[in-house]
């Protein structure tokens, strides 16, 4: 069974961008897997973290997307995932999210509602990739 958690909020403080998870912290230390996926049914981007014994799928739902878009602009700043006492840089964030956005734009293989929402929120990032 997949373990899913959701980012509850994002904060932009100075040069620091943090996304917080309000779920029970795993007993093991979490490490960034450097992979990002989509869950079109949940209308979410998904960052994969690794505990060494399992993968955990961190959902970034639509309410976090404006800050994800801002984080993409900050190419010299790696966003952080804050999960209780653990703070983890989201390795490969810019590359992974950039590739996903490029694949989603105008692609009818993604759920239409998801694609339209992504194009609306990430229009600046998509325009800069053109």
Question: Layout of SSEs?
Answer:
Blueprint (H helix, E strand, L loop, with lengths): L2 E11 L2 E6 L9 E9 L4 E7 L4 E7 L3 H9 L6 E4 L2 E4 L3 H12 L7 H10 L1 H7 L1
Parallel strand pairs: 1-5, 2-6
Antiparallel strand pairs: 1-2, 3-4, 4-5, 6-7
Task: Tally the beta strands.
Answer: 7
Helix percentage range? 25-40%
Overall pLDDT score: 92
Give a quick account of the main beta sheet: strands, pairing sense, barrel closure. 7 strands, mixed
- Put simply, the count of helices is 4
Q: Which sequence of SSEs, written as H and E, runs from N to C?
A: EEEEEHEEHHH
Task: Tell me what portion of residues adopts beta-strand conformation.
Answer: 35-45%
SS-derived structural category:
alpha/beta
| Terminal-residue CA separation | 39 Å
The largest sheet has its strands arranged as 3-4-5-1-2-6-7
Query: Unreliable stretches, pLDDT < 50, 5 or more residues?
Result: none
Write down the overall geometry: globular
User: What's the gyration radius in Å?
Assistant: 14 Å
Descriptive notes:
It is a single chain. Strand 3 (31-39) and strand 4 (44-50) form a beta hairpin. The protein is globular. The chain has helices at residues 65-73, 93-104, 112-121, 123-129, and strands at residues 3-13, 16-21, 31-39, 44-50, 55-61, 80-83, 86-89. It has a seven-stranded mixed sheet. It is α/β, with parallel strands linked by helices. It contains four helices and seven strands, in the order βββββαββααα. It is 29% helix and 37% strand.
